[in-house]
What we know:
Blueprint: H1 31-51, H2 56-74, H3 81-90, H4 98-112, H5 119-128, H6 136-149, H7 155-169, H8 174-189, E1 208-209, E2 214-215, H9 223-255, H10 264-273, E3 277-278, H11 288-300, E4 305-306, E5 315-317
Antiparallel strand pairs: 1-2, 3-5, 4-5
Amino acid sequence: MKSRADLLVIDPPLVAKVPAWARPRGLVLHEVDAAYLAGAALNSLDNLVRQDFAWAGAWRQRLALQSAAAAVNLTGRREDESALRDTHYLRGAGDDPGPSGHLLMAWRRLASRTTSCDAEIVRPVAEQHFGLLWDESLAEVVANAEDMVVSARPAPTLAAEIAAAVYRARPDAELLGFWLADVLLAQKFKWPIPVPLLMGQVSSPIFKSGEHRKRIRPGGEGWGRAVFLAYATAAAEACDLGIELAQRAATLTAVAPKLRAKGSGDVIKLLLSDDAVPGSWSSPKLSARGARRLFDRLGELGAVRELSGRPTFRLYGL
């Protein structure tokens, strides 16, 4: 009998790449030019999303980690991607992940399931992960977002507007505005699951203006142009990451028939669906010791990477 690992289909690493002319280069002065770049880059990203690759879960969660790290940095905290990854995967059951860990959970939530601009979905995220007090001003913004979804206006334009609307109503909810921007963008493109994009660009020069290079706040002068350029850049980088992960996933699925451990198919599915898997992972089919041997074997075959850089409490991923 073939194992589940033997039955996995290998996705060809054919991922749309954003062409060089659609990537922001140098200073883009006019909003219409920025909008054109955003549309071209997002079209390539849309093609990637609709192919629904087996590794799309790992891809989205890797982007979620990047977005969370940018959000944490914006709040003045110091945790980087590695620290956030450790906090998430190594904390004990029921442990409070802390403010930064909650931000990661917010973007992991965005990247893992169908999300809409509905108060029943947004309110728990706002309260639990962003630590916000829900009030009528946020409820009104979210209600208006539902109307924006059916608008014929371009998706990046509406994403910029929802983030600005949140900031006007509640400056302390700026991070939620970035989160909702990606939700609205996904709904306009009819993606089954959003892709974390905008937050990851917040510290780039795209969002800086003026002599002192101050950060452009949502709704401020140059905000629309900055959001268009951010989506153009984020879409290009997301496609580049997709190309990279497609190649790694192809290697992983190619070596699957060589694996004889029971439960190896489950491990491979986890690696394809998430950012990382703890080396101590276990299941009824595979003990923690067996999992460690399996990860060692996958590392020898060049099918996974050890992400922590530690000799113990290791984390593995594409």
